Amino acid sequence: MTQVSLFIPCFVDQLLPQIGLDMACVLRRVGYQVDFPEDQTCCGQPAFNTGYWQEAKPLAQRFVEVFRSAEAVVCPSGSCTTMVRNFYPELLATSDIRNEATELAKRVFEFSEFLVKQAHVSDVGAFFPHKVVYHDACHALRELHLKQEPRELLANVQGLELVEMLYSEDCCGFGGTFAAKFNMISAAMGDAKAGNAEASGAEFLTSTDPSCLMQIEGILRRRKSTVRTLHLASILAQTDKSSRNTSAMENRSAIR
User: How many whole angstroms separate alpha carbon 161 and alpha carbon 201?
Assistant: First the structure.
């Protein structure tokens, strides 16, 4: 396998496009050709999670049509990867493309999962001289069973000091529409996560899910915290040359 297709989630496409660019940069660095199918849209997860399965189904069908010929599909979100791999077979159970969706789901990978388990790469040649803590995003941890893969990649980043925080596996409180329906609970969960990140002494908090990072970053800013958030792909995209300019790095893809 020498070519991969990029599956870019809505949050990345609309709010944090640099994450997608950084993911592509890393994949190219380790020897892959990347393509971005421009006809892709939302995977349908917001509607699916809220119970609107009929509205989500056309989006799932479109995803299968767009990516049906891809050798491998790589996504910078455990949440969206979970939607395709774990829930499309159920969502499309009565569809004519159910079997095709099930087969495609086996070729869809979260970014860190693809690097470690498929490409068998743990060291991508990154350089990031900062203290970093990792947040275990719910879907990546509980649905995809990814815990060591992102940590393995971070441990091989030159200059990076990886520390652990208390309750790293606890939810950050985002949960999509959960944050809107139960905002007070969501904010309290996010505040606990932000406090644990600060207590770790880390300069940066990273994760595999941009939606989690957006939630945690909002809490950190309200706390006037010095801890910043940065997606795993954006840390791995840093090299000795790019990381020497700290201000440029901060503007590159830190969530503001």
Answer: 11
